[in-house]
Write a structure and sequence with these properties.
Strand order of the largest sheet: 1-2-3-4
Order of helices and strands: HHEEEE
Radius of gyration: 18 Å
Number of helices: 2
Largest sheet: 4 strands, antiparallel
Shape: flat
Structural class: alpha+beta
Number of strands: 4
Helix content: 10-25%
């Protein structure tokens, strides 16, 4: 195994241990592994941050490109998934929006 492979294994173990912080995971109420683990970007004490997604929306009556981040928070012993608004960019000319 090379250094890159060893680092990947170390990261997977760290991610798994973090997921196991939830009582619901340890008791079998939630999956023993994070179903979104391949999208995981960052772990904090009680949160797991995943990739972003963008949506074209109407915000305050104007066209906007809204960026959301998926996050899971440890709440009452279980991981709860939510979308968090990261950025709202108003689009002046909707014809240039792809």
């Amino acid at each position: 195994m090379d250094a890159a492979g060893a680092e990947l294994i170390r990261q997977r173990i760290e991610q798994h241990e973090h997921w196991q912080l939830a009582d619901a995971v340890r008791s079998g109420e939630q999956s023993s592994t994070d179903p979104d683990r391949d999208l995981l970007e960052e772990m904090l004490a009680d949160r797991r941050l995943y990739g972003t997604q963008q949506r074209h929306e109407i915000v305050s009556g104007a066209h906007a490109l809204t960026t959301y981040r998926v996050q899971k928070r440890l709440v009452n012993g279980q991981w709860e998934r939510e979308l968090v608004v990261e950025n709202v960019e108003h689009v002046e000319d909707v014809q240039h929006v792809a």
